[in-house]
Request: fold
Amino acid sequence: MPLLRRQDTRSVGVNGGRRRGLLAIAFFMGLAAALVQVLLIREILSLCRGNELVIGVIFSSWFLGIFMGARFNPTAADADLQRRVLFSTALLPVLMAVSVYGAHAVQIIFPRTVGTFYSISVELLLALFLTLPASFFVGFFFPPLVALVSGEMKERSGGTVFYVESMGSFAGGIAFSFVLVEIANPCAIACGLLCASFVIIGALVNKKLIPLALVPLSLIFFSGSIEDQIFTRVWNRTHAGKLVHYQRTKYQTVAVESYGDTVSVYGDGILMYTLPDRFEARGLFHLINALRRDRGTMILMGSGPGSLLHNLISAGIGHIRYFEPDPELWDAVYPFRARLYPGVEGERLSVYREDLRHFLSRSRERFDMIVSIPPAPENIMLNRFYTREFYSLCKRHLSEQGIFVTSLHGYSNYLSEDLRDFIASIYRSFAAEFPEHLKTSGETMYLIGSAAKGALPRDVDELINRYKAGLPLRAGRLEKEITQNYSPDELRMFFELTQIRYFDRSMASAVKKVDGNRDLKPGAYWKSIVLTAFREQSLLYALIRGFLFLPALILVVSVIVFGDVRRRYGPRYMAAGTVIYCTGLVSISAVLVMILLYQNSHGIVYYRISLINALFMLGLTVGSLTANRTRIRLPLILAGLALSLGLVLVQTVLNIDVLFWALIILFSFLCGAVFPALFAAAGSESYMASASVLDSMDHFGSIAGSLLTVMVFLPVFGIQGTLIVDILIVLLAGAVGFLKFESS
Amino acid sequence: MTRLTDDSLHRREFLIRGGRSLCLLALGSLPLDSCSDTFCQSHTDYYVKPAKMWRRLAGTAVECTLCPNGCQLDEGERGICRVRKNIRGSLFTVIYSRIAASHVDPIEKKPMFHFLPGSTAFSVATAGCNLSCKFCQNWQLSQSNPEDLDAVQITPADLSQKARQSGSRVIAYTYNEPTVQFEYIIDASAVARAKGIRSIIISNGYIRPAAGKMLAQNLDAVKIDLKAFTEKFYSDICGGRLTAVQENLVSIHGLGKWIELVVLVIPSLNDSQAEIRKMTAWVRTNLSGNVPMHFTRFHPMYRIQNLPPTPVSTLERCRTIAKDEGIRYPYVGNVPGHQWENTFCHGCGAMIIRRSGYFHVVNSIKNGACPSCGVRIPGVWA
Reply:
């Protein structure tokens, strides 16, 4: 079907005021899109056990929606084009609310057994379908808006709309990262956007529509109770207990559930711990007491603020530093904890509301014991507590006879290949830093290491003897569940002989064929996903196991799409499409890598995703603006892009904060410059054709980039390897750009 | 319509061929079902043996009559349990003597509290299960195909020898569902009995009564997971039927075998007071008040990862209900150190076995009786 031609757009005859109104829509859509994206990420992560795989799929879905919206936008009369733009403007906030709360309602529409997750394949599909509606309209408005504005702006119009939209996205990212994340829930944000859209549409079309904005405006004041109602009803219908507290922190959504006489704490929908946990704490408490020294100093992370902490304080520990990176989580749980464990805080306990790795990397203190009980490494943030770098950091902060204890997902009687590989990657990293170590058996394993020879008992008998000869525990000060009926023989439950021999036999060969878990090659994270997929017998497991499937599929689809572009628009557009496809692929791949690097360095990343996106958008905006004005040569831009990726590679080693943020801007500046440069080079036939081809191929490349990065590049090549692949792709794009647009 | 040029024809042909090749390449990289005859042929000497408990249907189809699933299998197909296969019109087990896991466990870990307390059990497992419980602790074994697991061959004679070498008085068929090893257990338990070694199974009890009777011939005790007391739970969470387990329980109890029951109490799924009362009343009426019942604590496991552990107070309430209903030996389980993991005489209430975890057991029972009041304590003590 033919697209709108240049002469058609000239006849639109837009005036200055109208053009400003249309550009206001571009800005609004950029801003709304940034907010929708980050909110969708948060809500879908709550539904889908947040990991980078899901983030990758959300990004893919996002770009797929934009691609479809931009691609399937048939030509029409001006009035129709305007209607499409206005319709998209009003609909986007509504779709945002529907998708965001739909992510929670899904659990009612498609019930699952209480306590289970959807299979990981279903989660990825849900992420896809929940993201598509909003992203479709983010793409849908673009070509018609370009067409409407182009009469006045001529060939620069695509670039102008692009950078105005990017500026909106930048504003949205900054607004969310620094303001909205603290004060507004999605309902309020949707209402605010709807209100703004009514004002813009009213100003552009008919001022009588503006009073309609009062309706969503008034809803903002009720957004808290609306969301409260939705959350409570959905939770109580889909969980075992009753929701007694929920709070959106800037890191996660915290939910506290009551069941019987217990309260359970969930972060982003995932069970973190249950209070009271006296019997759970009993074994580990005595194990720690068998290992520790009197009046020593201790770091405790990840155990939850329950019985272990309470009883260690009461058992003569010199001083405990308890780490909880989300300060609002601690505040949310504190009232329940204070009721269950009254009066234990004091000089012996310091609660550190920061990331443990962050603390250790800047501290010079040494500790007698470091106990790290992190959740399973289902995402990069958690994986960094299982890497060799973390173990090394802990070792450096141990006192002379200091002991490090950490936990990991263990096994029940048998180690399947996937579980064996998963454990082996962590165990290898641990053993490399702590050649002197003990390990326990069971579904939760403890790895116990020391830098000093002789600091650890040789076997369980010596451990029991140490326990008996060691610190006297004053039962009266401890909870009775911890001490009643206790015999040091209970320690043998940690060291079941045949289980440990079996583990040693299994690991002897496994650690040789599996890479250790590293910050820059997070093998355990990926193996954890594989293990989850295996456990759920999900389709994804087959896809992962046959990992050529995805690259082959993407290649086939890409070839078809490129063929279609060539058939419809000719070889010049295909070349332009190739360059922008590669740029899109690399840009999202690098953004994902940057997110991972940030997580490795700082821990929880969620509220910073929007900042990363915002800076990315700023770079895109300035880049596109600059390219629009100065006509930088395309090969130079791509060479710069390759160089900036090389600098990101350097940053993976140097890990300098300022460089990190500067590189995001530099890298995105160059990405942003590609679009207008190509638009100018390829867009002489039809503005709408150029906008449609370039925008859609850009997003199509981004879809491929998101999927390939999270499912192939990172697992196979690691972070640095992914960057090298990205550099090669940029060089390929540079070669195409040079041959097609420079040599002629 | 645009006319296609030679050039575009070539391109299209190239795209089609390339696409086909890539699809084949991609599909070829997917792990396909490894359940092929090649597997069975290459393992004939070791693990593939003619199965018992099946009947022929029309043509080459067969029906397995081992468990209530009653799988009807065409040639080449396997049952729900993954380990019984129709090969050329006859049913075979593909796991005979195929042992994927073996450990020496305290008998209390099973848990068996009234069967040779303080002893160890040489515990063995293979692949497969006829149910698919979403909370399975040993899902890596039970929900796997046998050829996907590392295994060694342990013949019935070898098994008794290994048990003896490990210092165990008992062989426990455990971890995965043992009844799927029907043929092997029948042979191995006969050899063990001849050598003075006891045999027990830790089972879901999902077996047809006729098969159950045959299996139990040389067994000394049976621990059965009574997973809930509603058909809904059994069908939704486990893929089975409660009534079939009930029938089998009555049947095995009728044989005079020592039985202990374990109820894994899962928050909101099977922990209602009414359900526990109904269950314990049924046990009292249809089995005996002397059958020990272990109300054990759920921890997040397998597919049910996002549910908090069972409140200890819930387990204590279950124990109280069971006591009220006439169960003499109700226990609280998976809570090391809890006072109701100990055994108290039903006659005088004295503590007769003290437990602290499953490695510290102090048994005061003398000649099967309470040392305080002399009443006989139900169980197998020597």
Notes: Chain B touches chain A through 69 residues (CB under 8 Å). The CA atoms of residues 39 and 147 of chain B lie 8 Å apart. Residues 98-337 of chain B form a domain with the TIM Barrel fold (CATH 3.20.20.70).
